[in-house]
Amino acid sequence: MKKIGILHGKERSFPEAIVERINSKAVPGIVAEPVTIDKVMQGEPTEYAVIIDRISQDVPFYRAYLKNAALCGTAVINNPFWWSADEKFFNNCLATKIGVPVPKTVILPSHELPTDTSGESFANLAYPLDWKGIFEYIGFPAYMKPHAGGGWKSVYQLNSLEEFFEKHAETEQLVMMLQEEIKFEEYYRCYCIGGKHVRIMPYEPRNPHHLRYVADFTPTEERLAQMEEIVLRICRYLGYDFNTVELAVRDGVPYAIDFCNPAPDAEVTSVGEENFAWVVETAANFAIEKAQSQKDGEDNLTWGEYIKRSSNNQKLFFTGKYA
Fold first, then answer.
1. What is the Cα–Cα distance from 304 to 194, expressed in whole angstroms?
2. From CA 121, how far away is CA 113, in angstroms rounded?
3. In sequence order, what are the beta bridge partners of 201?
4. 173, 205, 220, 317 - which has most CB atoms within 10 Å?
């Protein structure tokens, strides 16, 4: 019997629904349940063929548990090694190399010195920074947000130099990004599951949280195909099995605004009944697919095109076949 485990925190509607949906399919040799952890011993496998991770971004103990499980053959959704390495500024940098439009973005050193450092730790950092060049490049209005992390925590809309310096002082040791504001005509939040299934949802981030999926944008078939291709390209390069990509359309161009969401909101009260049903069904089918292909003791993780191409280049280099 192959078990599919759901590792989650306080959310309930999605974890409970996907367990019920997988089990209702009665696939021979497949069963789903919430993950139970009573001990974690190095190099010892878990009882799960697949684990869907919804919480390890907030619990380092769980992240360590998942890495050990993956080393022993569990297919973890999403790959915990890549998720540990990933962050939003890198994603923006990668997007510029794979032809995905993104807002102009710079990364900023933290306003306060990190714990256990001093001014001498930053001998290579110019002081002051080239603020004139930075502000000319980004312009105002602008957004400032953490370079890592999710949701709308510590996100600021800024309209002037004075406002920037005032708000940056509030961010303490957070490393922030300063990003061009995209004044959009349409906005979409797009689920991508398994690197192949895409659900494009009209989304209005300016609405209160519970009304953000109440939006009346009506994309053409051409626009839908364009956005689906962008979503698939991003998720395949990053190697995420379960992710959301947010696209803001300005002057007919979809800009990728936020696309590092490996534990995206899937609560029925947030996304609505139709979107929820799609996510549950699609994720359930994908988890079953992963369980059926999982092989004990092997690497059953998804690795993105960025990592795979880098690995192939290294192999070619070390074998003397690199051109």
1. 12
2. 9
3. 189
4. 205
Query: What CATH class is the domain 186-261?
Result: alpha beta
Rounded Cα–Cα distance for residues 69 and 65 (Å):
6
CATH class of 2-84+285-305: alpha beta
Displacement of CA 48 from its chain's centroid (Å):
23
Find the largest Cα–Cα distance for the chain. Answer: 64
Rounded distance between C-alpha atoms, residue 247 and residue 101, angstroms: 10
Which pTM does this prediction carry? 0.92
What class, spelled out in words, does domain 104-180 have in CATH? alpha beta
* Pair of tokens at residue 77: 């959704």
**Could you tell me if 266 and 14 are in contact, meaning their C-beta atoms sit under 8 angstroms apart?**
yes
pLDDT in tens, 276-323: 999 999 999 999 999 999 999 999 999 999 999 887 664 544 344 433
On the CB side of 66, how many CA atoms lie within 13 Å of its CA? Answer: 29
**Whether the bond into 313 is cis, omega within 30 of 0:** no
79-121 per-position pLDDT tens digit: 999 999 999 999 999 999 999 999 999 999 999 999 999 999 9
Handedness of CA 111, 114, 116, 117 (dihedral sign): negative
Distance (Å, whole) CA 104 – CA 257: 10
Q: What are the b/e assignments for 136-159, b being 16+ CB within 10 Å?
A: eebeeebbbbbbebbeeeeebebe
One-letter identity of residue 10: K
Q: What is the number of other CB atoms lying within 10 angstroms of the CB of residue 86?
A: 19
Return the domain boundaries, the chain. Answer: 2-84+285-305, 104-180, 186-261
Cα separation of 13 and 126, whole Å? 49
- Coil, helix or strand for 94? helix
Dist CA 253 CA 232 (whole Å): 17
Q: Could you give the 3-state DSSP secondary structure of residue 177?
A: strand
CA 132 → CA 39, 138, 182, 238, distances in Å? 54, 10, 21, 33
Q: Residue 121 carries which side chain, given as an amino acid letter?
A: S
